[in-house]
Here is the input.
Amino acid sequence: MQTEIEVKFVDVDIDEIRGRLKKAGAELKHPMRLMRRVLIEQPEHEQRNAFIRVRDEGDRVTLTYKEQKSATLHGVKEIEVTVGDFEKTVELLSLAGWKYKTRQESRRETWKLNDVEVVIDERPWVPPYIEIEGPSEHAVRDVADKLKCDWNSALYGNEKSLYQHYFPNMTVRGLIDIPSVRFEDPIPKEFLGKKS
Here is the structure.
């Protein structure tokens, strides 16, 4: 597995970030597009704070194992492969006994600045945010500085940290416990501190 060196910055103005990316010389790799994913979590995955994800990224479909060792810049380990078909991969895993817990959608725009990837993400129920991922902490910090991101307000780890930021009273672990996560869905009562 490789270490994912990634940081999130929340409450961004998308047009402002696009302007800063262009000014810094970043290249738009993929315009904003709808992405869909399913997350699979077996008991052994839950014990390791891990999950398996099948994600349709618009131009490719990936199958990923992610494990969060800690909520730090270097705390997530992953291994990812490209597969051919989103629904068939989900069906194959289901027939093998690994049914998904949650089906989600988001929107993502991807930029590249040198060897660092910057994505502008939109997810249900939270304001837009960016993720900066690169080959080293130095490279990630350098791009964050160019984009005028405040390192003291950075979030680390998977989307759980993002949703806990906005919904500190939620009674679930995060999106993995919500079966349907779509833009038209109402905010789950579990995110508002109410048990189902």
The beta strands are 2-4, 6-10, 27-40, 50-56, 61-68, 76-83, 102-113, 116-122, 129-133, 180-181.
